[in-house]
Design brief:
Beta-Lactamase, 5-stranded antiparallel sheet, about 20% strand
């Protein structure tokens, strides 16, 4: 009687690649199959694995700075600005002196909704007005982190690739959005409000 184990394949290391081998009932071995290294993140990759441009930390900081400058020019109340990358991960956040303590959640919710659904938060507000059930369901899927009012703006390259989102809060939603748009464009990207 053959004592060969059957069951899931065991991973073995071979020449820097991951190889899998297994045995089948009856004792025969399956051939080794070499697989490419595991890709841990698809963030910043286009279909086919090509690199996709990403918003840098310096660009995120510049967007925040330019949002604050625009807010000052417009005479706005203290602003809070959240910049997310294309994967919805926090790149940078700042809150001006005098901004209230929950502004991070609002700014993040505007940007997170925009990047998560692929449209600016103005479009999400319009969708909430016409199809509230959709926004309620989406907000549940987003663990309550969706803020569907203007001020969440997609950051796009000239070719249309989304590379991040900006959420601004502190003044009226329309003014928040205007400050975000001015900052995104000042850094050289395309702003998409929805």
């Amino acid at each position: 009687m053959d004592e060969t184990k059957s069951g899931p394949p065991e991973a073995v290391q071979s020449r820097g690649e991951i190889a899998h081998s297994a045995t089948v009932d009856g004792g025969g071995s399956l051939p080794d199959v070499s697989l490419p290294p595991v890709v841990l993140s698809y963030q910043n990759r286009k279909p086919g694995g090509l690199p996709m441009p990403a918003i840098t930390l310096n660009e995120a900081r510049s967007i925040i700075s330019k949002t604050f400058e625009r807010g000052l020019d417009m005479g706005l109340k203290p602003l809070s600005v959240c910049v997310l990358d294309a994967g919805g991960h926090l790149k940078a956040f700042e809150r001006q002196d005098g901004a209230s303590n929950l502004r991070f959640r609002i700014a993040h919710g505007k940007a997170f909704g925009a990047i998560g659904l692929g449209v600016g938060s103005r479009a999400l507000m319009n969708r909430a007005e016409s199809q509230s059930y959709f926004i309620l369901a989406a907000n549940g899927a987003f663990d309550g982190n969706l803020v569907p009012v203007p001020g969440g703006v997609l950051v796009k390259e000239a070719g249309g690739d989304i590379i991040g989102a900006v959420g601004v809060t502190g003044d009226t939603s329309d003014n928040d959005e205007a400050a975000a748009v001015a900052a995104i464009e000042a850094v050289g990207y395309v702003a998409d409000t929805g």
